[in-house]
Amino acid sequence: MNGYLKVRDECAVCAQELHHQRADDGPAYVTILVAGHLLAPLMLIVFELYRPDPLVLTVGFSIVFIAMALYLLPRIKGAFVGLQWAKRMHGFAKV
Known about the structure:
single chain; 95 residues; mainly alpha
């Protein structure tokens, strides 16, 4: 990566061209899916055990969700680019 979400034009180690990768919206969808599936049961458990005020629960879990999404998004995007490279998709074909 060259920043938070920008993929470098080429790998700094092996000089593999990366400019043609096509991650598009896939990483965002997977990030929401993963974070939502991890936090939904946790939210139910916290609500059943502690019965917090709904506003406190909403604000607390919104902050946790945003933090988790910001942490996961670049890693999942890197995984998408790596998967494209491994499957020789979108210009990663052997020459």
